[in-house]
Amino acid sequence: MTLAIFFILLIIYSFLGWVLEVVYTLITRKRLVNRGFLYGPLCPIYGAGCMLIAVALAPLGNNVVLIFIAASVLTTSLEYATSWAMEKMFSTTWWDYSKEPFNLNGRICLVNSLAFGFMGVFIVWLVHPFFVSQLSRIPSGILNSAAVSLFIISLTDFILTLKVLINLDKKIGELKTFISAHILKTEDSEWFDANDLRRSYARLRTMSIADAVDAYADRLTHLEKILARSAGMRRLFRSFPGMQSKKHDFSLNAFKPGKPSKSVSKK
Q: What CA–CA distance (Å, rounded) separates 16 from 223?
C-alpha cells in the first residue's frame, strides 16, 4: 500500500464515519447536523480508527472473535486517547458519555465499544479489501495528485477550525472579565444574573431603552459583542452540543442558541 493510497483511504473512512454520524443524529435528533469537528464532511477519528484496525488486524485472517475483540479494544483506546488529547489541546470537553452505562470518565462507553467491534469485522473482511483493490487500479500519478489536493484541503480546514476555537476561548475570557466587573459593582448590577446571561442581556437592553443612560448602552454593546456567535461557533455547537470549556471552568451555554447559561464561574 502506497502512502497516497493510505491517505486517500484515511479520507474515505473519515467521510464514511461522518455519514454514519449524520444518519445517527438524523434518527435521534430529527434533523441534519454536520457532526464533524471540521467544516468539511469528515470525522478524522473514524478514519484513524478504520486504518488502525485494517492494518493492525490483517494478520488475524478470518478469526471473527479475535478481530471483534481486538477492534473493540483498539478503537475504544483510540476514542479515549482522542478525547483526552482534544481536551488538553483545546481545553474543551467535546463529548460526554457519563450518562451511559459502563462508561469510563465519560470518554468511552460499552455500547460504543461493542459497535466498534462489529464495525471492525466488517471493515477487515469487506470494506478495506474492496477499497484497496479499487484504488490500486488507478494510475499512481492520479492518486498522488488526489492525495496532495486532499491534504491541502484538510489542512486548510483544520486551520480554519482552530481559528474558531481560539476566538471562542478569547470570548470566554472576555465574558468572565465582564461578569467579574459587574459582580463587584453591586450598586449597578440589579439587571445582572450570573446564572442566566440571556435574561440579563434582555433586562439590560430594556433598561438602556427606558433610561437612555450611556453607561447602560455601553454595557449592552459590550455584552452583545461578547455573546455574538460566528458561523463557525454555531457549527461547532450544533455538532457537539455537550462541549464545555475546561480551561475556564465555565459553561458555554451562554453562547449556544436558545439555551440560557445554567452555571457561570465566579472566579
A: 41
